[in-house]
Amino acid sequence: MTRTGGALLVVGDVVTDVVARHRTPLAPATDTAAAIRTLPGGAGANAACWAARSGGAEVRILGRVGTDAAGWHERALRRAGVRPLLVPDPEAATATVIALVDGSAERTFLTDSGAALRLSPADWSPALLDGVARLHLSGYLFFAATSRETARRALRDAREAGVPVSVDPASAGFLAELGADRFLAAAEGAETLLPNADEARSLTGRGEPESAAAELSRSFPLVVVTLGAAGALVAEGGTVTARVAAPPARPVDSTGAGDAFTGAFLAARLAGADATEAAGAGCRAGAEAVTTVGGRPPADPAEGCRVTGDGRWLTADG
C-alpha cells in the first residue's frame, strides 16, 4: 500500500559516530595514521535525514539519547530538516559507534548502544502517529528487550491506525546473535522489509540474494534487498519482481549507504512512487552517500565533510 499526504515517523537510533579512515591496514600494538571525524549518525537518524533531503513530506524521529549530546544531536537533526522527538536519558550516554573505514571504503563498526536501546514503551504513545502516513522502525531496536517491546507496540498501533510500517534489519552480526526466528516474529506485521544481502541471507539461510528476497516476500508484502554497487532487488508474493541498477560512484566511505537508500526509498513511496521507482531513488541516494564521509548528507562544515577523488577533505569553505 502506498499512503501519501502525511509525515514519515522514524523510530530508531541516534548515534555519535567516530569515523576513522585509514589508508593502510591496521597495525597491531602500534599507530596507524587515519583521518578521524566525529559526526552525528545512527541508522534511524541517518535514514530520516536522507528522507528529509529527498524533499516532500515532513520527517520526524523518535529516539533516546544521553544528556551528554542531546542538544548537539537535536541541532544537527533540525539543520537536516528533521523534526527531533528525542528522549533524554539521565543514566546512559548517547550511543557511540566507531567506524573503521579502510582504503576500499569498506567499514567495520565498534558499537556501544548506550541510550539508544533503552527506548522504552513509556517513551511511545499512539498519539505520535497523528499526521503520520508511514512508520519506519530501525532494526537496531529489535536487539534489546526494552526497545524491542517499544518497536512492537509502535508496529501494533500503526497497523491499528492503518499506517504502513517498514523495518530495516540493520545488522547481520546482531541478527545472528538474536536469531532469525526471533527477529522475524518481532517484525511480523510490517508491510516492507529492507535488508541488505547479508541480512537477507542471515534471515533465511539462503545463499543467493534472489532466493532470500523471494522467501522473505512470502512473510512480508514487500521486500527490497540492497546489493551495494549492484543495486537492489524488489520481491513480492514469493517472486523477485524487479532488479534495479545503481549508478556508478567512486566510494570513499560506505557508512550509511543503506540508510541513504532507506530514506530516499521511503520518501519516494510517500510521494506516490511504486516499489521499483522508489528502489531507483534509493539506489541513487546510496550511490551519493558513498562519496561522503559519515552516514548523512553533509549540511555544513560542522556536520560533515566531502572527500575529493584524491582523498583530501573538502569542507564548505574549500
Describe this structure in words.
The protein is of the alpha/beta class. It contains nine helices and 15 strands. The chain has helices at 43-53, 70-79, 145-160, 172-178, 180-186, 197-204, 209-216, 257-270, 275-289, and strands spanning 7-11, 15-21, 35-41, 59-66, 82-89, 95-101, 107-112, 132-138, 165-168, 192-193, 222-226, 232-236, 239-244, 306-307, 313-314. The strands form three sheets. The protein has a nine-stranded mixed β-sheet, sandwiched between helices. α8 (257-270) packs antiparallel against α9. The longest helix has 16 residues, at 145-160.
Quick overview:
This protein is an alpha/beta fold. Helix content is 30%, strand content 25%.
